[in-house]
Each structure stands twice: as C-alpha cells, then as structure tokens.
Amino acid sequence: MKDAHDVRAETKAFDPGGTSRALRRAEKKPRSLPVALVTEHFWSKIVALLFAGVFVVLIDRELSVVLFEGDLPVRVVAAADAGAGEGRSEMLLLTEDGVAVHRLGAAKVRVVIRGRRKLADFLPRDKGIVGRAYVRRAWLAGFAGGYTSRILEGGEFDVGVPVESVKFELPLQVDFDKEITAELKLDPAFTDVASGLTPSAVFAPPTIKVVGAAAWLAGPGAVARAVVPIACAGRSSGFELDAIEWPEELSRKFLRPGPGPRTRVRVAFAAAEDATITIEGVPLRYAGFQPDLEFLFLPPVEAKKPSVTVVLRGSKDRTAAFGTPEKKEELRRTLLAQIDIDALTRKVGAYLDDPSSAPPTESPEIEVLRLPEGLRLDHTDRVEVSVKRRIP
Q: What's the predicted TM-score (pTM) here?
C-alpha cells in the first residue's frame, strides 16, 4: 500500500511543477473559524443582508404612526362651490342644497391623523391638509322649525388618503337649519375718511340677495341689512367700485351671496359740516424749566392744580361721539394743555432785567396735546401768567 510519500514522489514524476490539484488538496490546511466567516460564501451574505434591510424598511412603512397633529380651522362652504380648497390646511363642512349651517361649536379643532408611515408621503402638505365632511339635507327629516344640532367626530372627515383614523380632541357641534334666500338693504361703512370731508355712497342695485340659515334671515331678529366696508384712505374726490367687499358680519353668520347682478357703488365727498365741543377743567402745566424764574397763574385759573377750558372742532358725527357726560369726562382726562415757558420768557425777558418794575404779565399761547383723531383745537380760555425772578 502506498503511503503519502510514495504518492508525492509519483506525482512529481508526472508533474515536475508540483501544481497538481490533488496535491494542493492533500496539502491544504484547515482555516480558522473567524477567517472562514469572512472569506467563505461572501456574496451570499451580502445578498442576505440586503434582503434583511428591505424587509425592515417594508415593516417600518407598515407601522401605524401619527401622520399629523395640530389645530385646523373649520370653514363652511356650499358643496357646489367646494373646489379643491384654498391651498391651506383646514377642515371643510360642505353644505348640501336646502340645508345651511347656523353656528359652529368651535372655529378650530385639534386634529390627530394616524396611519401607516408610508402614507406620510401622500399627505398633500404643500397644498394643505384638507378634511371634508358633509352637512346633509337628509338631517332635516322631521324638522319642525328652529335650528337643530349634530355632533361630528373626526372620523366623519375624509382627508383624501386612506388613513387609519382621524380624531378630534373634542367633538365639533354643528347647528344647522333650513336654507333660504333673503334680500338685504346695503349700507356703507366708511373708513379712513380725510378730515373735513363727509362721504356718501349709492349702491346699484340698492339691495343684495343672500343665502343662509332661516334662523338668521327670517322671523324676529332677522338680519335686515348688510353693512359694506368702503376704504377712503388717500381719497378726496369721488370714485366708483365695480364690486363690493363681502361684509365680515355676514361671513360670521355663514351667509353667502345669492343669485343676482354684481353690486356696484359710487362714492362722493362733500365738505363736512363742523361742530364744536367744550371740555372744561383740562389740566394745565408748564413745559420747560427756568430755575431762576417764578410763574404765577392769575385769576381765574389760579389754583394748586390749574386747568383751562378747551373748545374742539370736528364733524358733527365726530363731536357727537363725545356728547355724553361719560365721554366728555374721558376726553378731559385724556387732553393735556401746556404753556411753553421758553417762549414766554423770551417775551418778558426785557422787563425781567429791571428789578424796579412790577412782575410782567402775559397771555401765552396754550398748546393742547393728545387730541383724538378727527378733532382739532378751536380755542382755549385766555390765561394770564405773572413772571418774576426768584429772590436769591
């Protein structure tokens, strides 16, 4: 029987280079375990790791997480006018024809949206997260008049993505009523009118149709007019507007424009008819400081806390705003009359240089500060002031 030595001898005879595959297997030494783990089956381990990573990612994307949490405003819109939203996050209440929202229990709701993590990529955050729920006409079945209520939970809102849940921190109460159309008279509300001008407005047509809850538009206490804001800043001559700004008061009641022609308005200005208001007992003080002079108010204003009567001028509407005793007292506390001491001493300076002369008197100009907008100073009482040098 041949031993290993004989096998190697024969192999060298036929293979002088010693590269025989059999000899390499015979002389191969076993590798240690750490080396084998690194070098053997390398690519199969890489593939296994890749599959494990993908598996973890897939599981993670299927996990339920909070996709959104925050306060969202609630807006009421007619279902026919809903569109795609206004590009902001909000919860929309879509009213079907024949039913209208009367009041909401809250203007905002705290919303928590949960779902699979992978859905976070599909929530339209750039265009706003919009939830939609309907106020159904069928809810009025058996309605006997007067508004009624319903409690809405977050689950009744569709956010456009198949999420796991939509929850409100507190449920939303919705008061609703029959939808009717009414005609309201239009009245102007002018802002930023220039001093000395009185504006007037003519609407064409003079009324407007509005649609909303019967509780607002019919019966005792129904809304009878629409007050339209008209800005007059920087204007002193008449102008026209092709459309009106929808009154905020009507929006707060969820009233919207009804069918009809576009409303136009023509604005004109006239010179305001002035009126005066007299405020007695306005505090009077000296402005400035002359340490070597003494000042003394002569009658009738001589007192420890001297005061003066002030007459202000403005439009009839503006002065009428201060016509009550309470408003006059409030204005008296606001106004402040003062005498400029530096200007006064310049007038009487020559007399002060003669010690033998009597202290000069003067009726100085009185400045009135803190005048309300729309009122200007007409005149004040005349006040005499005696001026003399202090005795060292």
A: 0.57
